[in-house]
Write a structure and sequence with these properties.
The protein is built from 25 helices and 20 strands. The chain is α/β, with parallel strands linked by helices. Helix 10 crosses helix 14 and helix 10 crosses helix 21. The structure holds zinc ion.
Length: about 675
């Protein structure tokens, strides 16, 4: 592994932070923490931690000897000094004399000694850092080191590979007991440069940030070189059947299988991500894949992301039978997980609630790996973590036999309150776990709608004729932007395929793209009328049809929402080319409601009027208000409520229809009140 310490960079960090009142020690601690955290072979998603022992001054000028240690919730790759809270070290050192210290008391002790009480909780491994005497302590969960520490003969092999300058710590669950044990191992030979923690990771330490970091890179390189030199391809590839289905074909089925029916027709859904690297494919296409997946997770803290390990499916050769296979596999996984919970929960009197038993990582021969989560972000993390496990297991099998910790040890970490805290609590937003597609998503109403859905927790896909603008809108919302001409059915299908690839499926569609064409109906050209029908009617049909196909595969219902406009119910003079297809689209929304209600797919429309947008530009507003001899303000608020209706108001109407689980075939009017356009 390349050593990327640069004196210039280190000094630049010091020069940046010292004027802000951060001392040199903490600035350098921030620097190498980022170096380690930026390397996925060392640290993934909140794993790993670092510390420095230094002095800080409090508000009244008292100077304290402290441990600045990574705080919970901070990612090492982008850490700031605030992510390394200072804890007074003397009380922590006293704790080593205790026989026992519960997790809750450990957290209390650490929090009670924070110099700044608003700091995040110090790492669960803070005591281990405190008990080691060195100024700088580094601790990632390196994949190369774990390939050795996860072997059946891990302790003997670790000594062989890393030699006498490292200490060796048998597996103990992280927390107080591990901190004491690691410190005892260190005390037996204080000349060591670091520690190998069985089935867990590596510590190195030093008097300077550079020394601890150099040692880390050295030992990780030793591990990686050992694996490379001694490794052979450990797996036997199987012959895959011809004509495999694609990830796109089966993602909606998978998504449906891991959704939980809440009993009232609504679902707790999941979001999924597919990935297939050569290393993943070697693993999933191996004859040994089920054996490997059954041996547990590669480090105990992975259990909070992928539970007891991945679920394995068969290669998807026969798509008609595949749904049954998926459902049976998910049911079996849930049953195994429930039994694992029951058996281990019964070991003591602690009251626990079982977490949802759905798999978070799936291995599919021929296709790759699927990460599953409550959000796209969680699904990506599950995918990353599973990919890391694949890498560790492959390396370990190349040099020996991969062995995880015991199932009860996995359980202790998965249900450890301090680990669960990493997952974040709090009520989910009402549209969490749902994927929404908004067409015409870069326009005023589309962008406001995408934003409103994201604010309610939905995962957002923005379609627009202008792909760059779609991407810009989506980026702000953490979604995906896709360039799509909705009048081309093939383009619509391709765009939905991308959504399926990205999120696993789709639940809500806001079919919003439109454009206004005018002309006296007796004189209008056939070509113009057909052009308007293409966009203002047929595109809605093609978007809805494509979405419904995916929804039917998911079997978790869905919601279609159409922007029908006031023209659908109240024609304006010389506006036939716009109003006619919009009237057909309003009818379309009702036809979908009728034909797919039994499948739980709802369909409704929004009838909005006089919104500043690409269809009613500022210039048009100026011109029209002038023509009518009223002010722009009066023109825009020329309705019963005398209030201007904005894009955000229309967006809220779409959101409310999406939330109204018992409403379908509805039309919501958003126009400030216009009796002539009221439905009757
Ligand atoms: Zn650790």
């Amino acid at each position: 592994m390349e050593n990327i310490w640069r004196d210039d960079d280190a000094e630049a960090m010091v020069a940046h932070y010292v004027p802000k009142g951060i001392n040199r020690d903490l600035a350098l601690r921030t620097y190498t923490t980022r170096l380690l955290g930026g390397e996925p072979r060392l640290v993934l998603h909140g794993g790993g931690n670092t510390s420095v022992k230094t002095r800080v001054e409090d508000l009244v000028g008292d100077v304290h000897e402290v441990l600045c240690v990574k705080g919970s919730g901070w990612d090492m790759g982008v850490i700031e000094p605030a992510g390394l809270p200072a804890v007074k070290i003397a009380p922590l050192l006293k704790a080593r004399k205790l026989e026992k210290l519960s997790d809750e008391d450990m957290v209390t002790l650490q929090r009670a000694n924070l110099v700044d009480p608003s700091s995040p909780n110090p790492s669960v491994e803070a005591l281990l850092h405190a008990f080691l005497p060195h100024k700088f302590v580094d601790h990632p969960h390196s994949t190369g080191v774990l390939a050795i520490a996860d072997l059946a003969d891990s302790m003997a092999r670790s000594r062989e590979v890393f030699g006498p300058k490292m200490g060796y710590v048998p597996y103990v669950m992280p927390g107080f007991a591990l901190a004491k044990l690691a410190a005892d191992v260190y005390d037996q030979d204080p000349s060591v440069e670091g520690l190998i923690l069985d089935k867990h990771g590596i510590f190195t330490f030093g008097e300077t940030a550079r020394e601890a970091y150099d040692r880390m890179i050295h030992y990780v390189t030793v591990a990686e070189d050992y694996v490379r030199h001694h490794g052979k391809n450990p797996f036997t590839p199987v012959t895959l059947p011809e004509g495999l289905a694609t990830a796109r074909d089966i993602a909606p089925m998978l998504r449906g299988a891991v959704a939980v029916n809440k009993g009232d027709g609504s679902f707790n859904r999941m979001v999924s991500v597919f990935r297939a690297t050569p290393a993943i494919l070697d693993f999933v296409n191996a004859a040994e894949v089920r054996d490997m997946a059954s041996r547990g997770v590669s480090t105990p803290d992975l259990s909070i992301r992928i539970k007891t390990g991945p679920m394995v499916l068969d290669a998807p050769a026969d798509l008609t039978a595949y749904r049954d296979h998926i459902n049976a596999s998910v049911a079996a996984y849930m049953e195994d997980y429930s039994a694992y919970f029951r058996d281990n929960d019964a070991r003591d009197s602690v009251q626990r609630t079982m977490l949802d038993p759905m798999p978070r990582a799936l291995l599919i021969p021929g296709l790759g790996l699927v990460g599953v989560g409550k959000t796209r972000k969680d699904a990506v993390i599950a995918g990353d973590v599973a990919e890391m496990a694949v890498s560790i297991i492959t390396k370990a099998e190349a040099i020996g036999r991969f062995t995880s910790i015991r199932e009860r040890d996995i359980f202790d970490v998965e249900y450890w309150s301090l680990e669960q805290a990493k997952l974040g609590k709090g009520a989910e937003k009402p549209l969490a776990r749902q994927v929404v597609v908004v067409t015409g998503g870069a326009g005023a109403i589309g962008a406001a709608t995408a934003k409103a859905f994201a604010a309610e927790g939905a995962e957002v896909a923005v379609f627009d004729l202008d792909g760059e603008k779609a991407a810009a809108v989506a980026k702000k919302l953490g979604g995906i932007g896709i360039g799509c001409d909705v009048t081309k059915p093939a383009a619509v299908q391709a765009a939905f395929a991308k959504v399926v690839q990205h999120f696993g499926g789709v639940d809500i569609v806001v079919s919003n793209a439109g454009n206004a064409w005018g002309g006296r109906i007796g004189e209008v050209s056939d070509a113009l009328l057909r052009q308007s029908f293409e966009l203002n009617f047929f595109s809605h049909q093609s978007v809805a049809q494509t979405a419904v196909k995916i929804m039917l595969q998911q079997k978790t219902g869905g919601c279609l929402l159409f922007n029908a406009s006031k023209q659908a119910v109240n024609p304006g003079p010389d506006f036939g080319p716009y109003g006619l297809p919009k009237a057909a689209t309003l009818f379309l929304s009702r036809q979908y409601a009728l034909d797919y209600g039994a499948q739980g797919i709802r369909s409704s429309a929004v009838n909005a009027d006089r919104i500043r947008s690409g269809l009613l530009t500022d210039e048009m507003v100026a011109k029209r208000s002038k023509a009518r001899g009223v002010s722009e303000k009066d023109y825009m608020s020329g309705n019963l409520l005398a209030r201007e209706v904005k894009a955000a108001d229309v967006a809220q109407a779409f959101v409310q229809l999406a939330l109204a689980a018992k409403t379908t075939a509805a039309v919501t009017t958003v126009d400030g009140g216009n009796i002539a356009a009221a439905l009757r």
